[in-house]
Amino acid sequence: MTDKAAELRAKLIRNFNQVELRHDLREPLYDSRGARLAEGTAATKLGASIDIVAPGMRSCPYHLHYAQEEMFVILEGEGTLRVAGEMLAVKAGDTIFIPPGPEYPHQLINTSDAPLKYLSISTREKPEICEYPDSGKYLAYAPDFDVLGRTKETLDYWEGEP
């Protein structure tokens, strides 16, 4: 392989079967292994992750995005998509489309006895606000800005201003 080919491969290709997975465990509900695939690539507008959720567990809290759109491709296993207050069965081969906005809070739950493996693809819109309906939290982020708080804690517009 030429130097240029090696450089292109490093910038453009990730094999999700060969990446190092980070273990996220927060008992009793959350247990998954995953990797953000687009980090370190030439991608500027797309994000991609691989996630493997342990049986009976979840990968992340119920949430929604105000800017980013997401797509999930179920690669192995089966589970439940909690979305907009409903529970929908999902299985290998299903592709899930989640547009931004408060209509589609979502979460994938492994309701089976085997691992649930899926690929997440998203736009990387910034600034972004994520809302977590179960806990009343929000996450606001942009380049060089990242704040996690609660929506119920509000301030007067002029608070702290001279």
Automatic annotation (TrEMBL):
Pfam families: Cupin_2
Gene3D superfamilies: Jelly Rolls
Cupin type-2 domain residues: 52-121
Alphabetized SUPFAM superfamilies for the sequence: RmlC-like cupins (SSF51182)
Keyword set, alphabetical order: Metal-binding
One Gene Ontology term of the molecular function aspect: metal ion binding
Family matches, as CDD domains: cupin_SPO2919-like
The keyword Lyase is assigned to this record: no
Protein name (record): Putative cupin superfamily protein
